[in-house]
Structure formats: structure tokens, C-alpha cells
Design brief:
The chain has about 220 residues and is α+β, with helices and mostly antiparallel strands. It contains 8 helices and 7 strands. Strands 5-7-6 form a 3-stranded antiparallel beta sheet. α5 packs across α6. About 20% of the residues are buried.
Length: about 220
């Protein structure tokens, strides 16, 4: 009887059969599934081998950088239609709302204190400062200014005594003044074209109407006969 020999190398693990042809054939059939599984395992290991990681240039798409947003305008720029900084405080540039000196004094105090806090980071002012605002806008009443301001207790917080009296805006006063500024701007009541800093509107220049000079009427003369 002829002999046969089969040698299987699973990465040199070697599974070898040698003997009669019938014996070798029976062993191969017996271990066929084992051999196939072993070869399949080698293929799986090869498939699971690590692959080269693509570079970031190939796999990552980045958006163009977002340009930085413009910085917000400074308080001086934001309120340039209403206030101008000075060495000691602020100048109220807009016409003071109100139909009387008392109402205008209260409006002037609110606007001045609001501008003082926005531009100078100072929240309180002496009565004398408010008096200067009222004088610049032609609504100063030395006898009644303090009483007019104290008549609006909800808008102001008062401090000090006598000539050292001070005031600042309360929380409702801040909100009320912000609303007042919105109304002024909505009405187009910006910088008044008057004296610098007083916010008063100058009187319109009168125009003289030129009338035609009457021409003398021509008289016919009678000739004497």
C-alpha cells in the first residue's frame, strides 16, 4: 500500500500526517475544520493589524478663524450726543425737558447724574454742581431748586447737610433717566445748536422782508393853449 504525507504549517506550528494513504486522508478529513479555522484566524489577525493613521491635514477640515468682534463703543462715544466730559464732571449738551424751571431742574439733575456715572464712574454730586447745570440751561432758581429736587424722592438719594448736600440717582431714578434719554433721542432732541454746553436753542435769526419801493406815479401835464 502506498504511503502519503501531509504537512501543514500554521506559522511554523506544523500539523503533519504520515502513513498510508487511507490513514492520511482520514486524518486530513478529521482535522479539516481545525485547519480551516486556523487559517481563518490568521486572516482575521492580518485584517486587524493597525493601519496608518491619516494625518490631520488629510482627515480634519478646519473652518477659517472667526474674526474678532469689534469692541463696544466707549461711554464717551456712546453718549456723545448728550454729555461731554469736563475736568470736574460732565456737561449736559441736550435741551432739558420740562415746561417750568422746576421740571427742567429735575431733568437736569437726572441727566447730569446719569452722565456723571456713565463717563466718570462717579454716582453722587453736590447741589452746587446741579446749580451750575441749571444756570447753564437758564432754569436756576436759588430759592426753589432744592425743594424741586426733594419733591422727587423716588428718583434721588440725598445726603449731607447745608451747603454740603449731595444727591445721587436711586435705582428707579436710573431706570427713569434711561427712559428719559430714550425719549429725548426718539424725538431727535440731540445737541442743541445754542451756546456751547448750555443746551439752549438759540432764537432763530429774523429775516427782513424787502418790499419793493413804490414808484412815483407819472402825472400828465396840461399844456396851456
Amino acid at each position: 500500500m502506498s504511503e502519503a504525507r501531509v504537512k501543514v504549517s500554521l506559522t511554523e506550528g506544523i500539523l503533519e500526517f504520515e502513513g498510508s494513504e487511507t490513514f492520511v486522508t482520514s486524518q486530513v478529513e478529521k482535522f479539516t475544520k481545525v485547519i480551516q479555522a486556523a487559517f481563518a484566524g490568521e486572516d482575521a489577525v492580518a485584517d486587524e493589524a493597525p493601519r496608518e493613521t491619516p494625518t490631520s491635514r488629510d482627515s480634519v477640515v478646519t473652518d477659517p478663524p472667526t474674526p474678532p468682534s469689534a469692541p463696544p463703543p466707549s461711554p464717551v462715544e456712546q453718549f456723545k450726543d448728550l454729555f461731554a466730559p469736563t475736568e470736574t464732571g460732565v456737561q449736559v449738551l441736550t435741551t432739558l425737558p420740562g415746561s417750568s424751571k422746576a421740571e427742567k431742574a429735575v431733568s437736569g439733575a437726572k441727566l447730569y447724574l446719569y452722565g456723571l456715572q456713565a463717563l466718570m464712574q462717579r454716582d453722587s454730586a453736590a447741589f452746587a454742581e446741579i446749580g451750575r447745570v441749571c444756570k447753564a440751561h437758564g432754569c436756576y432758581d436759588s430759592h426753589n431748586m432744592a425743594a424741586s429736587l426733594k419733591g422727587d424722592q423716588a428718583s434721588f438719594v440725598f445726603g449731607g447737610r447745608g451747603k454740603r448736600q449731595t444727591l445721587k440717582l436711586s435705582a428707579p431714578g436710573m431706570q427713569g433717566t434711561a427712559d428719559l434719554i430714550a425719549r429725548i433721542r426718539a424725538a431727535g432732541n440731540g445737541i442743541a445748536p445754542g451756546r456751547k454746553g448750555n443746551g439752549r436753542t438759540s432764537a432763530p435769526t429774523s429775516r427782513r422782508t424787502m418790499r419793493p419801493t413804490p414808484q412815483p406815479t407819472a402825472m400828465s401835464a396840461k399844456s396851456s393853449g
